[in-house]
């Protein structure tokens, strides 16, 4: 089946776990991602999760649900303590089938920015939470 390349506006949420997640911990995070019904999501490398939300299909609400849900996992002494969250909005190139289902991980500048923000957020670690700074912004 032919693939269609399209440019569309997405909200990208990247979650960066400095500790590679396995077993129950991995499932907890995957379940949080799935519960927000992203248009597409993928663990692109160990500990790096990208979720994509079409703005036109309730993307803002869904992406907020994920940043809040992932943020709530960051507890001192837990495997999620150094979880970084990055969120961006932008036009991405997506490859879809005729039914609009995304077949491969979307790409574009917003993806790179989300990856960078999540990594920087993870580097700050738990200390930033004490300052009252909101995670993922």
Structure description:
The chain is of the alpha+beta class and 137 residues long. It has one domain (4-131): Nucleotide cyclase, GGDEF domain (Alpha-Beta Plaits, 2-Layer Sandwich). Helix content is 31%, strand content 30%. It contains 3 helices and 4 strands. It has a 4-stranded antiparallel beta sheet. Strand 2 and strand 3 form a beta hairpin. The chain is globular and about 45 Å long. It starts with a strand and ends in a 13-residue tail after the last helix. Residues 129-135 have low confidence and may be disordered.
Topology:
Blueprint: E1 4-17, H1 23-35, E2 40-45, E3 48-54, H2 59-71, E4 83-96, H3 109-124
Antiparallel strand pairs: 1-3, 1-4, 2-3
N- and C-termini, Cα separation: 39 Å
Oligomer: single chain
Mean pLDDT: 89
Order of strands across the main sheet: 2-3-1-4
Our Rg estimate from Cα atoms comes to: 15 Å
Looking at the overall shape, the CATH architecture is 2-Layer Sandwich
* Secondary-structure element series: EHEEHEH
CATH superfamily: Nucleotide cyclase, GGDEF domain
CATH topology: Alpha-Beta Plaits
Q: Kindly give the count of domains.
A: 1
Report the sheet with the most strands, covering strand number, pairing sense and barrel closure.
4 strands, antiparallel
């Amino acid at each position: 089946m032919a693939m269609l390349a399209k440019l569309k506006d997405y909200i990208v949420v990247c979650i960066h776990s400095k500790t590679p997640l396995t077993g129950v911990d991995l499932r907890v995070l995957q379940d949080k991602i799935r519960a927000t019904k992203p248009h597409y999501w993928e663990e692109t490398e160990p500990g790096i999760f990208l979720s994509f939300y079409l703005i036109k299909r309730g993307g803002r609400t869904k992406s907020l649900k994920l940043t809040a849900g992932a943020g709530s996992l960051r507890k001192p002494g837990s495997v999620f303590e150094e979880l970084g969250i990055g969120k961006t909005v932008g036009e991405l190139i997506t490859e879809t089938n005729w039914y609009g289902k995304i077949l491969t991980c979307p790409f574009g500048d917003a993806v790179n920015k989300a990856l960078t923000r999540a990594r920087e957020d993870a580097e700050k670690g738990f200390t930033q939470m004490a300052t009252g700074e909101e995670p993922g912004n």
